Structures are given as structure tokens and as C-alpha cells.
Amino acid sequence: VRGLAFPGKADNGETMNFSPLSQLEDILDSESRVIRDLVALEEAKTTYLLDRDAVGFGEVVREEEEKARVLEKIEGLRRALTARVIHDMDLDDSATLREIADRLEADSGGRLLALRDRLGDLAGRLKELNSKNGDLLRASLDVVTLTLDLVTGADQASAGYTPDGVLVPRAGRNLLDASA
Given a cut of 80, is residue 88 above it in pLDDT? Predict the structure, then answer.
């Protein structure tokens, strides 16, 4: 598509093409790299969860938060560049990357679709790992809750109520009441 490029100068003085379309490809590639990093961090979280390493888990969570902030900025740039390309190509505001690619030469369109597909695959893997880690966290919480109930006696039912409606606790002691 002609008319989408605007020339610029690189640090070494060479003329470069800074078209919104090439910038969009660069942004999609950057977004893929950050999501790939997030997938690696999710995999590390799985290991830390299975190893019950809270310190390592916490470090990964902090790294994820930083990557998420970077990803948010990249996504904003991607949306802005996509809108510009859509406008420059005189497409409907709701046009997809597929529709953009269909208007391009095969080479450019193919690169754009390959980037889109890679992003989709990585996002799917990230979602899968996130769900798995959520399940692991819930299972860990169930174990902690059960342990606390056993230690505190919270799982013991009451003996009943008095005639005036006051709850009568079941007789007995919990593990916290036991003396050494």
C-alpha cells in the first residue's frame, strides 16, 4: 500500500522507512517477546508452587507485574498504530489484522498474519498456565485451611443451643490449647 511510509534518518545517517505498518510489525514482535517472557515466568511460578517456595514465587510475581506494565504500554502503542494503519488504508474502524493483511502484498500480509498467529499462540499458552497455577494456588489454600481447622478445632461442631438461644461449644480442646 503506497502512502503509508514516511522517511527518516537513522543514527548512522542512512535513510530509513518508518511506515506505520513496519512500526506495527515491530510492536507486534515486541508484544510477542514480552508475552513469551510472561509464559516463562508462569512456568517458573508453577515450579515454585510445586516446590512450595514462597520466596521464589514472590520474586516471580514482582517480575510479572513489571512485565505487565511494559505490556500495557506496548498494547497502547499497538492499538494506536493499528488505528493509524486502518485510517491510512481507508478501512472500517473495526478492521482486523486479517483485513489489513488482505489489502497488502503477500509478503507484508504474510508477516503480519504470522505475528498475529504467534501472539495468539503465546496468549493461549499464557492463559493455560495461568489457569493451572490458579488451580495449584486453590489446592494449596485448601490444604492450609484444612490444617488451620485441624489445629484450631474449627471443624468441630457445636454441642447445640441453650433454651435462650446461646450457642454451646463442644467440649474439648484444640491443638493450640495443648500444653507441651
Answer: yes
* Beta bridge pairs of residue 8: 16
CA gyration radius for the chain? 28
Backbone angle region of 153, left / alpha / beta, with phi > 0 → left and psi within -120 to 50 → alpha: left
Please give, one letter per residue, the 3-state secondary structure of 48-102.
HHHHCCHHHHHHHHHHHHHHHHHHHHHHHHHHHHHHHHHHHCCCCCCCCHHHHHH
pTM, whole model, 2 decimals?
0.72
Residue 162 three-state SS: coil
Q: What is the mean pLDDT of the chain?
A: 84
Cα–Cα distance, 180 to 175 (Å, whole number): 10
Q: Report the SS3 class of residue 161.
A: strand
The predicted-structure confidence for 43-68, as pLDDT tens digits, reads as follows: 999 999 999 999 999 999 999 999 99
CB 42 within 8 A of CB 57: no
Residue count of the chain? 180
The one-letter amino acid code at 117 reads D
Find the largest Cα–Cα distance for the chain: 93
Backbone angles phi, psi at 177, to 5 degrees: -80, -20
- Sequence-ordered list of residues with C-beta below 8 angstroms from that of 147, at least 6 positions apart, any chain: none
